[in-house]
UniProtKB/TrEMBL annotation:
InterPro entries in the cross-refs: Fuc_isomerase_C (IPR015888), Fucose_isomerase_N/cen_sf (IPR009015)
Transmembrane segments: none
GO molecular function: isomerase activity
Protein name: L-fucose/L-arabinose isomerase family protein
Domain L-fucose isomerase C-terminal: 340-466
PANTHER family in the cross-refs: FUCOSE ISOMERASE, L-FUCOSE ISOMERASE C-TERMINAL DOMAIN-CONTAINING PROTEIN
Keyword set, alphabetical order: Carbohydrate metabolism, Isomerase
Entry-linked SUPFAM superfamilies: FucI/AraA N-terminal and middle domains
Species lineage: Bacteria, Pseudomonadati, Bacteroidota, Chitinophagia, Chitinophagales
Pfam families: Fucose_iso_C
Length: 470
């Protein structure tokens, strides 16, 4: 089960509008949060007038409450049942200084209730609140419709998207990525800046591949922990023609990598593969990477640290595993389709008929017998969000592209992990990727979350984002 999300709530009020609207909104907020299993942090109706925020004193009380729950709160919902007090909302967020996503909701008026006793004027109030947050430098998110009730389907869609934005932003703060081994010499494409990542709150924990292989080689087939991991591997996927000695090698490597992840409390890994593992250890690490990604501990090959970061961000947005893939081949003469491919490390969520196999391309140089552990499987039709996060070292920035398309059931006769993607204006996307120096690796996720990623990474993380779907 996913951990319960905690959201702060500010209910704005302005004294010459009906107070009863604030009391009604508070009840509706609590009902909504109960329905969605969200933990609310908001003023009690005894703390301020009806639990709303209007005066500077109210703002301080709400801010202190938020500060007490700083580590929990993933985002803030601003509710405007009437015009609201723009300064009260802005001062609360400024004093609390949570630096989390903020969603502004405002109620619509009814045409038959525009008299002094029942009017809201929230349409106007939302503009004023937004203006003040802009002045204070506080980032915020808007609903699709300018005014909307909490129980409207469109608001529920907006709110669920906002919750995903909160998960992405919260999840990327203090992220720890394990970099196992050195970048392969032939892969300049996966260079990145640790310093730019660190400036954005992302820590890279490095370890030499020899340490992992050394720890794996200290184990033997009769060790209880090796048997446990062997059982984990054989229950994860069909072993096909993979020999027993290769499975044992994979199990020992799985133990060593699992110990590294646990000891260093990393959230994701990027592992050297091509071709040191095959030459110096005698198997592929793909199955272990697939199992980690399936269990929401994403793992990328070739020490592609920003590829792993991309996998993690997409996973946060959707709640489902991601996969690192190559933009690999054209699909016949179809300008909007291409082949996505990798040796075989995709999460099982993408591979319903997965089998442990070998890596034929890699095997031509290191011997096929040294490449067991790669997975074989075809991804069927499913929704697609694709994208990539990179450090642009000359500019000193984080940059991103995202977009949406479809994975199809089009005929594809090849090996490894493979899929066919259909993407509107694929040729224009490839122009953008090439002109802006992005990697040949991209990440796919079975979702439609490009808008969530654009909002989280662009608006709140402050990264340069291109959404091809827009």
């Amino acid at each position: 089960m996913s951990k319960q999300l905690t959201i702060g709530v500010i209910i704005g009020n302005r004294n010459f509008f009906p107070d009863s609207l604030v009391a009604d909104a508070r009840v509706e907020v609590l009902d909504l949060f109960k329905q969605l299993n969200i933990k609310p942090i908001l003023l009690n109706d005894a703390d301020t007038k009806l639990g709303g925020v209007e005066t500077f004193s109210d703002a301080r009380k709400c801010a202190e409450l938020f500060k007490a729950h700083r580590e929990e709160i993933a985002g803030v919902l601003v509710v405007l049942p009437n015009f609201g007090d723009e300064k009260g909302v802005a001062e609360t967020l400024s004093i609390a200084n949570l630096n989390v996503p903020v969603l502004i909701q405002a109620y619509p008026d009814d045409l038959d209730k525009l008299d002094v006793a029942r009017r809201r004027d929230s349409w106007c109030g939302k503009i004023s609140v937004s203006n003040n947050l802009y002045q204070y430098g506080i980032k915020y998110t808007l609903t699709t419709k300018h005014v909307t009730r909490l129980n409207e389907e469109l608001f529920l869609q907006d709110f669920n998207r906002f919750l995903s934005v909160c998960k992405v932003v919260k999840g990327l703060k203090n992220l720890r990525i394990g970099a196992v081994g050195a970048r392969p010499g032939g892969f300049n494409t996966v260079r990145y800046s640790e310093k730019i990542l660190q400036r954005n709150g992302i820590t890279v924990v490095t370890v030499d591949l020899s340490e992992i292989l050394g720890n794996a080689n200290k184990l033997n087939a009769n060790d209880a922990i090796v048997k446990q991991h062997l059982d984990k591997i054989t229950s994860y996927a069909k072993v096909g023609l993979t020999p027993q000695d290769a499975l044992i090698q994979m199990a020992k490597l799985d133990v060593a990598l699992s110990q590294f992840v646990e000891e260093n409390q990393v959230d994701a890994t990027a592992i050297q593969c091509w071709t040191s593992l095959q030459q110096n250890y005698g198997c592929n690490v793909c199955t272990t990477m697939s199992m980690m990604s399936e269990n929401l501990l994403p793992s990328a090959c070739e020490v592609d640290v920003t590829g792993t970061l991309s996998m993690y961000a997409m996973q946060l947005a959707s709640g489902t595993p991601s996969a690192l893939v190559d933009w690999n081949n054209n699909y016949a003469a179809d300008d909007e389709k291409c082949v996505l491919f990798h040796c075989g490390n995709w999460a099982k969520a993408f591979l319903p008929d997965v089998t442990i196999s070998n890596a034929p391309i890699l095997g031509t140089s290191v011997g096929v017998e040294n490449t067991f552990g790669a997975l074989d499987g075809r991804t069927p039709a499913m929704p697609l969000t694709y994208g990539r996060i990179s450090t642009d070292d000359p500019k000193g920035i984080m940059k991103v592209y995202v977009g949406e398309g479809e994975l199809t059931d089009d005929d594809l006769k090849t090996f490894g992990n493979r899929a066919v993607a259909q993407i509107p204006d694929l040729q224009g996307l490839m122009q953008y990727v090439c002109r802006n120096g992005f990697e040949h690796h991209v990440v796919m996720n079975a979702s439609k979350t490009a808008g969530i990623l654009e909002e989280a990474l662009g608006n709140y993380m402050g990264w340069e984002v291109y959404n091809h779907s827009q």
